[in-house]
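To assess whether ligand presence alters the predicted conformation, the chain was also submitted together with flavin-adenine dinucleotide. Input:
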Amino acid sequence: MQQYQVIVIGAGPAGYVCAIRCAQLGFKVACIDKWVNARGKPALGGTCLNVGCIPSKALLDSTHHVHFLRQHAGRHGLKISGLEVDIPTMQKRKDKVVQTLTRGVASLLKKNKVDVFAGAARFLGGQQVHVEQLEGTSQQLQGEHIVIASGSKPSTLPGISIDNEQVLDSTGALNLREVPERLGIIGAGVIGLEMGSVWNRLGSEVIILEALPEFLPAADHTVSKEAARILGKQGLDIRMNCRVEEVQVSGDKVAVSYSLNGAGQLLEVSKLVVAVGRMANTEDLDLDAANIETDQKGFIETDERWQTSAENIYAIGDVVGGAMLAHKGSEEGMALAEQLAGQHAHINYDAVPWVVYTWPEIAWVGKTEQQCKHDGISCRTGEFPFRALGRAHAMDDTDGLFKIVCEQENDRILGAHILGPNASELICEAVVAMESELCAEDLARMVHAHPSLSEGMHEAALATDRRAIHF
Ligand code: FAD
Ligand code: AMP
């Protein structure tokens, strides 16, 4: 039996980062992953690299260009005729991006001398793990510490089975080879909106059915209301208060029965994407063998040091629930490695940024104005629209706004919310500000380059004190 100081199960963004950091800190590390790509080859990087963050952004970027060429190029004096969209080439580029990055993870693990096992891991009890290797043989490993980073997989609704032909999960939605005439999506969460944007830009009529009464409830209401308006204008037909009850496939049509405020409705589409959230990926780990407990939804329970109910066995990333985001998992991986090495490790979960990669992008960190009210925190807000920024006009991209929420009493920044071009990049300033416990006044006094979109943060900070200059 091979002995390791740390065994990491899963090579997604939580697992591979943890494995590399453990190796950097001098541990002897094994990392086990069972993922195989469409060509039947082992592929590292987990959901994020193979079927999540990266391929979705590759398609969002490609289709953003299509949208620009069709809708905006003319305004820049660019006359485009005979534009053709070649979906197989677009998909091939996406696959190449994935391949480059998954290979990159393999070489990073190799460079850091992490032993990689391609296969499925399960607990044998104690500190032992059995690996059923993809090549057909098996291995048993013993670890002083074992880290579970087995991630998540798409959920579905009772009675709806995914065939990835007509009823698709997020992976199926990323791999369509033709533009569906009418695309139904269940769930107006991050994945539903991103996939809806991709296929809408390519010409699908997109109808999104969402059970909740409120659009993007985790976002600040000023931002979510404006986002709903802009996405609606782009052609996304987002229907709230719609609870899907039944789905029937007949021939090349999918019939979706749903209730709208209690009344029965029927929607017929050519393809349906089920984007109703994700669940923990633990099915073949045999957690019981190591006495590892899960909560009612199946997520592994841990304490604040990521330890499970079993001593020296830890869990990080999507498999523990919370914010199911790649960067949250990676930070947990890094912090756990440092904790195992006896260092101080801490994550400020209040400063984890969220991004929805629609266009305009939607990004936020920290508290919304509504949460502050709910929690009894007295706050001030400052807003600033993109249409008041010179750079946004130069870019011909003026939709959206910045909003900063700060504490009434001491001006400390509690949250920032951005709807606009490059919000995913702009939010970083707010993360730095929150991690550094800065006040709105600090941002208001920092020099921001002109002309740049970041001036919007500056002006929103000034606006918390009613002294914005350009609006
Ligand atoms: P995963 O990435 O799921 O990796 C877990 C790994 O464990 C997998 O490789 C799996 O093969 C392996 N594994 C599981 N069980 C075993 C076993 N028994 N033995 C061996 N190996 C095992 N997040 C963002 O932050 N930004 C985004 O833009 C974003 N976009 C997304 C778009 C889509 C379409 C989807 C589906 C997700 C997106 N996410 C995004 C979420 C992000 O992908 C996840 O939060 C992230 O991948 C979680 O990382 P993880 O390491 O915890 O798990
Ligand atoms: P996320 O958790 O970001 O992946 O988003 C999933 C979305 O799907 C949430 O907004 C849920 O409210 C929504 N959802 C879940 N079940 C249903 C259902 N039966 N019908 C419509 N929407 C649903």
